[in-house]
Amino acid sequence: MTALPPLTAAEARVDAEEARRARALRVDKVARWVLPVLVFLILIGLWDRIVVWNRIPHYILPGPGLVVETLIKDWAILFSALLVTLQITLMALAVAVIGGVGLAILFNQSRFAEMSFYPYAVILQVTPVVSIAPLIFIYVENRTAGLLLCAWIVAFFPILANTTLGLNSTDHNLRDLFRIYGASRWQRLRYLQLPSALPYFLGGLRIAGGLSLIGAIVAEYVAGTAGIGSGLAFRILEAGYRLNIPRMFAALLLIAVCGVVIFAGLSFLSHMLLRKWHDSAIRRES
Amino acid sequence: MQDGPLCPSCEHPMSDLIHRPTLPLGQRPKVLEMSRVGKVFNGNVTALRDMELTVNEGDFISLLGPSGCGKSTALRLIAGLSNPTSGRILWDGGQGRGDLGVVFQEPTLMPWATVAQNVYLPFRLRGRSYPEVRSEVEEALSLVGLSAFLDAYPRELSGGMKMRVSIARALVTNPRLILMDEPFAALDEITRHKLNTDLLALKSNIGCTVIFVTHSVFESVFLSDRIVVMAARPGRVIEELAVTAPYPRSEAFRTSADYAAHCQIASRALHLAMGEPA
Q: Band of the pLDDT at B90, cuts 50, 70, 90?
């Protein structure tokens, strides 16, 4: 006697289906890393070949090898410039967090404060920082303070907007519950509104991280043309004047890596803070 | 995940949550009184008109009626979440903090806090430290059968278990009155039955006083000893029925002739309230 054929066939089909899905999942996992790396390698190779085949001079387009060489050769100059830019970026981000969250709480607690100041926060946000920066460097004597102010103007708004939204997005039943138990304003803020706002705040923080780097770079460009500075943007400008194109590329590479590291760091922070309870940080089986 | 019993052992001696003996109807001390309470929204929508209700210690009162009959409005008025436009609500001896526990239709838990922290909330808002009230929190959670889930987060629990946490939070301050606003309406039938049975066991266990809003005749008859039938447009009380079957009521009560008779009476009253022929 053999087993019933239709049943085993169906089972086999299910098993094949299952195996196919598992295989697709594995392929997905590998491809997520392999594909971007592959694209990267192909582009670098293509870049290198184009430069070599067309005999493009290095002051017009340096090959990738030369860029890396310059990065190593000029590391002392570029690294100290990187530290300056990074310092401004992180300080601006810190001030943006304090300012953004502080203003959000103030606006949330006082409707009149919100009515009075919110329009100006929006105006500050929508005016391109490149157009404000030259003015800032006229009136602000201290260079670091000027850079910080520029970067802050760009970075604080997403934190303010997101945190405000979060503070207002509390569950209405929980609000009622806090009222029934006689919670004070401070208790409601501390135990209900701030935790509710955390995921929103972290979303804003990730955007602000990238923006504060942009703000710092833009401010350095503006300040740099005024003849002072030693950040990465200034190095790019300086190298441009001297037709040192390989160094421009090397500095650009550092800035890009910097931005990626900031974004990854903030994403990791967000994940660690939310992984226990928030849907965004919880992986589900599909 | 399997839901545990709401009351694991009814012989369990109470350490912090005082057992209040339930006296027969008519001999119970008063908790609060509503006299001619009305609520008008926007100056023209009458949500509730001239509601009279005396709540006594140990009562299990169901507010039964169609949607729009003002039963949830009545609950919000008692909870102090809105003020009546006429009449008044008087607590016997005044209302103290922690005299009231509330269970909403949704579990209404803080997703960022563990089960124990959620149940601790009423105490936290009164400035009590966790070690001070740890035994009360753990006791309330053991009463709803969730002792093993103190450190779980709400998202790890089933719908029924979340509701149990919500009930534990309402119980934890040993309140004089617990308000429940259709707490089991969003749950599946099987879980609802189980929670109904367990809620009754809990009631016999600690002798709490409950006002329970529902639109289910069966739920109101099974749970309560007083059913207040309400009608809509304008929201008002039509009549009050007594369910004389003694507590503790078991699952067997659901199939008894007594239960069927009470359901029939309550159904008829509800049909009248809805303006339909009985």
A: very high
Which residues constitute the domain of residue B194?
Answer: 30-111+175-273
Alpha-carbon distances of A30 from A26, A33, A42, A44, A286, rounded to whole Å: 6, 6, 18, 21, 18
Q: For residue A249, give both structure tokens.
A: 């590329």
A190 contact B CB<8A: no
Count of structural domains within chain B: 1
Q: Which residue of B has its CA nearest to A172?
A: B108
Peptide bond into B248 cis (omega under 30): yes
Which helix (H) or strand (E) covers residue B31, if one does?
strand B30-41
Q: Does the CA dihedral A143-A144-A147-A152 come out positive or negative?
A: negative
- Retrieve residue A77's tokens: 């100059």
User: Hey, what amino acid is at B54?
Assistant: T
Going by their DSSP bridges, the two strands B226-231 and B60-64 should be labelled as: parallel
Q: Is the four-CA dihedral B256, B261, B266, B267 of positive or negative sign? A: positive
Whether B147 is in a domain gets the answer no
Residue A280: its chain B contacts at CB < 8 A? Answer: none
Find the largest Cα–Cα distance for chain B. 58
Answer yes or no: is pLDDT of B2 > 60. no
* A45, A50, A55, A57: CA torsion to nearest 10: -80
Q: pLDDT of B204-242, one tens digit each?
A: 888 889 999 998 999 999 999 999 999 988 889 988 999
Give CA separation, B15 vs A236, B172, B201, in Å.
Answer: 74, 12, 18
What is d(CA A108, CA A111) in angstroms, rounded to the nearest whole number?
A: 7
Domain positions in chain A: 1-55, 64-281
Cβ-based contacts under 8 A for chains A and B: 53
Q: Choose between B274 and A33: higher pLDDT.
A: A33
CA A271/CA A258 separation, integer angstroms = 20
Residues 99-118 in A contacting B (C-alpha not used; CB under 8 Å): none
List, edge to edge, every strand of the sheet that includes B45-56: B45-56, B30-41, B86-91
Residue type, B239: E
Cβ contacts of B169 within 8 Å, gap of 6 or more: B101, B109, B118, B119, B121, B122, B140
Residue pair B90/B36 in contact by the 8 Å Cβ criterion: no
Where does A64-281 sit in CATH, by number?
A: 1.10.3720.10
How buried is B177 (Cβ within 10 angstroms: 0-12 exposed, 13-18 middle, 19+ buried)? Answer: buried
**Smallest CA–CA distance from A274 into chain B, residue:** B112
CB B48 within 8 A of CB B235: yes
Indicate which CATH number applies to the domain containing B266: 3.40.50.300
A188-210 confidence digits (pLDDT tens): 999 999 999 999 999 999 999 99
* Prediction ipTM score: 0.88
Q: Identify the residue whose tokens are 């149990």.
A: B164
Neighbour tally for A212: CB within 10 Å:
28
Average pLDDT over residues A104-111: 94
B153: chain A residues, CB-CB within 8 Å: 276-277
User: Would you say residue B167 lies in a domain?
Assistant: no
The Cα A141–Cα A145 span in angstroms is 8
